[in-house]
């Protein structure tokens, strides 16, 4: 996230904040010298996030996976696969409706503009998520 979003990110519960224009692993290791016990990469940071994890730690890639051919410093690397679950989605929708789960939507687009949405994602700098509507 950008430095301008620090309050927002901390409001989501983050104890530490590293703005996107700073080298992630160096900044994390300045705060946690041995590296963090684990990291979840939902922003396609891959190696930058992996380098912040201590030897023997754990790393999960959420967006698209991460190919690591051999164990790196003994780090357990897993890809998180998301599966549809109507009951869980309904529970999350209830949390949103109750104001207990905050979403950050950058824009909504018709499904017919999916190509445009992907181009925007690839260009980076979005402040929130894109939502495709049927």
UniProtKB/TrEMBL annotation:
InterPro entries: NAD(P)-bd_dom_sf. It holds the Pfam family ADH_zinc_N_2. SUPFAM superfamilies: NAD(P)-binding Rossmann-fold domains (SSF51735). It comes from the Bacteria. This is Zinc-binding dehydrogenase.
């Amino acid at each position: 996230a950008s430095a301008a979003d620090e309050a927002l990110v901390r409001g989501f519960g983050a104890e530490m904040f590293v703005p996107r224009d700073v080298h992630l692993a160096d900044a994390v290791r300045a705060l946690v010298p041995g590296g963090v016990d684990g990291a979840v990469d939902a922003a396609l940071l891959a190696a930058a996030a992996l380098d912040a994890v201590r030897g023997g730690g754990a790393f999960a890639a959420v967006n698209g996976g991460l190919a690591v051919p051999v164990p790196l410093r003994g780090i357990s690397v897993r890809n998180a696969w998301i599966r549809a679950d109507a009951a869980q989605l309904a529970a999350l929708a209830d949390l949103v409706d109750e104001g207990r789960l905050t979403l950050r939507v950058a824009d909504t687009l018709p499904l017919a503009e999916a190509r445009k949405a992907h181009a925007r994602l690839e260009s980076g700098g979005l402040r929130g998520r894109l939502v495709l509507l049927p």
